[in-house]
Amino acid sequence: MALSKKRKVIVCILGLAVAALLADRALLGSGKPGPKEAAAEPSAAPAAAPNTPAKSPAAPPRQSRETVRESLACRLQALSEAGGFDSANARDAFCLSPAWTKDLGPAAPSSPEQDKAEKLKTDHQLMAVMVAREGGYAIVDGKCLRIGQVLDGFTLISVTEKSAVLESDGIRVELKVPSQEDEEGAE
Prior knowledge:
The protein is α+β, with helices and mostly antiparallel strands. The chain has helices at residues 5-28, 35-40, 65-82, 98-101, 112-123, 180-186; strands spanning 126-130, 137-140, 143-146, 150-151, 154-159, 163-168, 171-176. It has a domain at 114-186: Roll (SH3 type barrels). It has 6 helices and 7 strands; from the N terminus they run αααααβββββββα.
């Protein structure tokens, strides 16, 4: 019986998976049972006779997770006390360093074109857009603009489903249609 190419690939993948499983168990496994296996297996240590001294086990007894957590918490507390660590005045490890947030110099002066762009954003509101084969339309402050028309010195150059892009002297401004969440938040 001849195997198809697809079946040969499946057999190879299955063989590699079995080989990886065997290598994991034989070479990489520690040989110690996990928590589920340890609970399922009866204790292999023989019971000590009452008159014989107890032998120390080869491995330390397993501790429950709560015991490990408690001991870790106790160890961390002892370490902080020994090192004089004051947790009340500790800096948040997830805050940016002041070196990253300090001012690196005076802010770049804004150009008149940038001021015009900011004024366009604050003075006008994009109410709706319509994407069409011819390029589309944008309704800004109740006025319908086609691509190529000018508003306050800015030319409408493109329209997407939720925004319109205007450009003047190489500066682009994107006006976005307000979402319902924005309108509800304003009320």
